[in-house]
Amino acid sequence: MSSWPIGVFASVDAGLGVHLDVAKELGIPTVQVHSPHAATRTKEAATQFLGQCQAAGITITCVFGGFEGESYADIPTTVRTVGLVPASTRAARAQEMKEISDFTKLLGCGAVGMHIGFVPSDRKSEDYLALLHTTRDLLDHVAKNGQNLHLETGQETAEHLLEFIHDVDRANLFINFDPANMILYGTGNPIEALKKIGHLVRSVHCKDAKWAAESIRGQEWGSEVALGEGDVGMETYLQTLKAIGYQGPLTIEREIAHDRERQRKDIGTAAALLQKLRAQIL
Ligand code: MG
After folding, report:
1. What is the pLDDT of residue 1?
2. Distance 20 CA to ligand 1 centre (A)
3. What residue segments make up the domains of the chain, in order of their start?
4. Distance from Cα 263 to the centre of ligand 1, integer Å
5. Residue 57 to residues 9, 21, 28, 49, 106: CA-CA distances in angstroms?
6. pLDDT, mean over the chain
7. pLDDT tens-place string over residues 49-71
């Protein structure tokens, strides 16, 4: 595959992604997929979905896990409900993530992705050490499936994400970089973050957002907007991806599943913008 194939975040029956037919219509050659619900994570479903992708000339580049009970309603709710960090659901979700890794193998894909949650800041705390233990165990399972795990950015600063990955100490842990999330969560300038963690970035989201007002940043969401209309700076973003040597897909994410028409239109516009910038920069 040549450098920077365009991609889109797609869903089968769960998550906020577009349906595969949108990628097909727009001629987009790669997708990241939100894992389907447990009942549809079967061999038959995998064979069928893979067949649809192959017929449309679409490669699956990463499968994202998500869990019942997660809510991104506001930042405090996200802290409480998302990923492997909440202790009460940690073991069950780690087990489910292993099953998602197994399903991903059926799709012939070598990467799974997830939001791990808000990693505790105290590296000596019991919660942090328990999270390390669970993450290592999950990574060992993922490795047996011949896969890497990509952590979605946003909930941690670049520095803390690096510390966590260092502490986990497994060779198959990498980063899915989402510049808009750094803005939405208020965790740091995305371009500066990308320069710091670039050596670990194995997949990216092309998503845009506007900062929340400074007085509420980190406590209330910034706002997600169509690609090119936010504060990321798409040209600088792609130039920085080039500078760190990133060659993987540029996966468009537009999280407005409540407005499918607008989602489809914005993804078409985003694909055109990325194609134009890719031609200028590569
Ligand atoms: Mg993302």
Report:
1. 66
2. 18
3. 6-281
4. 15
5. 16, 12, 9, 12, 18
6. 95
7. 999 999 999 999 999 999 999 99
